[in-house]
Amino acid sequence: MFKLIITIILAIISVSILAYYTSNVLKAIFNAIYWIANAVGKIVVFIYNKKIIILGFILSLVVLYVVAHLTGEW
């Protein structure tokens, strides 16, 4: 009985640690998506300044589509 209680406590601790690190990984992934989108926005602004708006729009869509597929969001 005592062994079972210790096993349950260890399982709860390991699950909570796993959840903590998983949330950190998800935060890092969304941070990366944010920075990539930011960079794409700067590229789009640069292309807009070059008066090629459509190309920048297509480029941003492609990058966001690829990022979403890599992270499994879509």
From TrEMBL:
Keyword presence, Transmembrane? yes
Q: Where are the transmembrane segments?
A: 53-72
Q: Which UniProt keywords apply?
A: Membrane, Transmembrane, Transmembrane helix
Its recorded name reads Uncharacterized protein
